[in-house]
Amino acid sequence: MKADIRVALVGNPNTGKSTLFNVLTGLNQKIGNFPGVTVDKKVGYSSLPDGRTAEIVDLPGTYSLYPKSRDESIVFSVLADKANELSPDLVVIILDATNLKRNLLLYTQVADLKIPVIIALNMMDMAKKADIDIDVNGFAEKLGVPVVPISARKNEGIVQLKQAIAFANKVALQQDSIDIESIAPQLIGRIRQDIHIDNDYFALQLAHQHETLTFLSKEQSDHIEELEKEYSFHSQKAQGAETIARYNFINDLLYDTVTQKITAEDETLSNRIDKVLTHKVFGFIIFFAILMFIFQSIFAWSKYPMELISDGFTWTQTALHHYLPVGPLTNLLSDGIVAGLSGVMVFIPQITILFAFISILEDTGYMSRVTFMMDKIMRKVGLNGKSVVPLIGGFACAVPSIMSTRTIENWKDRMITIMVTPLVTCSARLPVYTLLISLVVPNKNVWWIFNMQGLALTAMYLFSLVSAVVVAWVMKHVLRARERGYFIMELPVYRMPRWKNVAHTMYDRAKTFVIQAGKVIIAVSVILWVLASFGPGRQMDNIEQKYKQPQFAALKKAAPDSVQRMIASEKLENSYAGMLGHVIEPVIKPLGFDWKIGIALITSFAAREVFVGTMATMYSVNGDAEKMESVQQKMGNARNPQTGEPVFTLAVAMSLMMFYAFAMQCASTVAVVYRETKNWRWPVAQFAYMTVLAYLASFITYHILK
Question: Taking residues 77-84, what's their average pLDDT?
Fold first, then answer.
């Protein structure tokens, strides 16, 4: 869509910037990435009253043009660099009307870049409730810019804001807030002259940020560094002087235009609620109770829609086999593409439910309290207060949990969270653990209360959490980042969630997951299907001919299903996947695994729970692979052909559980890690370290218990 004007939305976190973006653009928006970085770029389109179309760019929330994270560094790069493809014609700065003093610092910085500016004075309804009286006309006159009072959550003032955008000046008319040149007069003049720019504040920002700005050449950056030394420029002192000057200006502005009635008994409702929800003891109890409710809801509420989706795809596969001619193309469509697509779509209920809760917690303001409470604890192991929700969400599924790490601003903290979240025991591991535990752990009670199999399963869950924390602590010392882990968190007032925004978040996250992760998972599923369905030469045809011989005729009449399973098992052994199983057998033999388990390790890469189905096929189990009793019985009776001993001993079963506890046996997770990082080196590194840990843990476990 071609736009007539490009508008950038700029504001502090929690000012309602994203809500305003959604109100202005509706569903007419798309998410990509800013050029060269992994930061989400949200762009949408809005129709203006004069018939023109505005392209709306939602820039990351920031408190200042001096960045503390990669997200924040994007803001200055887009605003200042005229060559940037997203360079705006107009900036709409969103201010929280209940917290103008803090918000205005960013405004004064952006305004001094001399880009045409409009102020959207948001949350005016909240300001009225707090008895804050703002002289909007006086405010606009003193700043020299249009000021539009709005309430994005209630859709108030949006028409007036669109009118202001349509009739905005093409040149910057805002008043100067401070004397920029007085901060570093000689240096600013030289940078303007040598780098050929025409704005004092742009020149000052180049002095502060030249080492991290990609639009500067190395020669330009080196020259600015030389000028700093020549004029004895001290970045922190200059920032301090600038901030003091700006707040002097802001204080004068607010003194003249804003009044608030305050009484000794006037304590906000938010503060009263915080005394309970952020309490040193009760705060954590309430938080864990909320989490238990959320993840119980994810399991309970997603069960039936996931079953409907799964049944729908099963019906589709059956229908395709029934109505399409028999052949490899039908098998590819049904068992490869449709089966792979079902592996993506079945996650949608969990994703939408999790993000609905996350959106509600964020909209109400509670998520800010959680990160505030947990930050001190999590930071000791290299994580962030915002890492709590993704890690606990990993009990349901790592895929939506990794997607939820977008709320973590600090790059290092977010990457560590992404890298360790798959270690947490997800629901896909449950069939594997349940099957293996039932084979080797007695089904009896300890102390009349605790079931031994239940204790074993609980131990695997606790082990996964401890593993994630330990690996995070190691990565804290391994992963390097130039940015420091600042934790700046404003506690917004409590509000009712905006249900339209919640619904939009659910839709947006589900769509993103299906489109982005779906491409990869379908490709992987097709590859795995091909490997398991075909073999070299005419081996598959020879197996078919073998079972047509007279000695199998009687068996076919007596037990036709048994013969079909024998054929399928032999074909699988002679397929490319089977050959690969035999190839890797020497590598996995020290773990106690044979080639059949090796095939299961390969096929279960698509999803961990595929292990159970593969075992059912490999051991020719009667009935449906979903019937765990059948799988257990056949695997329990399986014998090593060389020793005659049971295949699944305590050592082998525990070794397998250790392998699945650490291994990245999930193509969806690999896909979503790539989706979130936009670089294959992260999922590759994650797959590598988890595989090494899985092998070592499995090797040690097997040889201790053997």
Answer: 83
469 alpha carbon, distance to own chain's centre: 19
Cβ pair 480, 464 in contact under 8 A = no
No. of helices (H) and no. of strands (E), the chain: 33, 11
DSSP result, 269-327: HHHHHHHHHT-TTHHHHHHHHHHHHHHHHHHHHHHHHHHHHHHHHHHHHHHHHHHSPSS
Per the DSSP assignment, residues forming a β-bridge with 42 are 31, 58
Question: Which residues of the chain are in CATH 3.40.50.300 domains?
Answer: 5-166
The whole-angstrom separation of Cα 153 and Cα 150 is 9
Please, what is the end-to-end C-alpha distance for the chain in angstroms?
66
Q: The whole model's pTM is what?
A: 0.59
> Rounded to an integer, what distance in angstroms lies between the CA atom of residue 510 and that of residue 536?
40
Residue 203 is which amino acid? A
Distance, CA of 314 to CA of 335 (rounded, Å): 10
Count of beta carbons in the 10 Å neighbourhood of residue 457: 17
Please count the residues of the chain.
706
The rounded distance, in Å, linking the Cα atoms of 649 and 705 is: 9
Tokens encoding 568: 């399928």
Architecture of domain 5-166: 3-Layer(aba) Sandwich (3.40)
Instruction: Please write the tens of the pLDDT for every residue from 523-544.
Output: 666 776 787 778 887 777 787 7
Contact 187, 232 (CB under 8 A): no
Q: What does the CA dihedral 585, 586, 592, 596 come to, rounded to 10 degrees?
A: 10
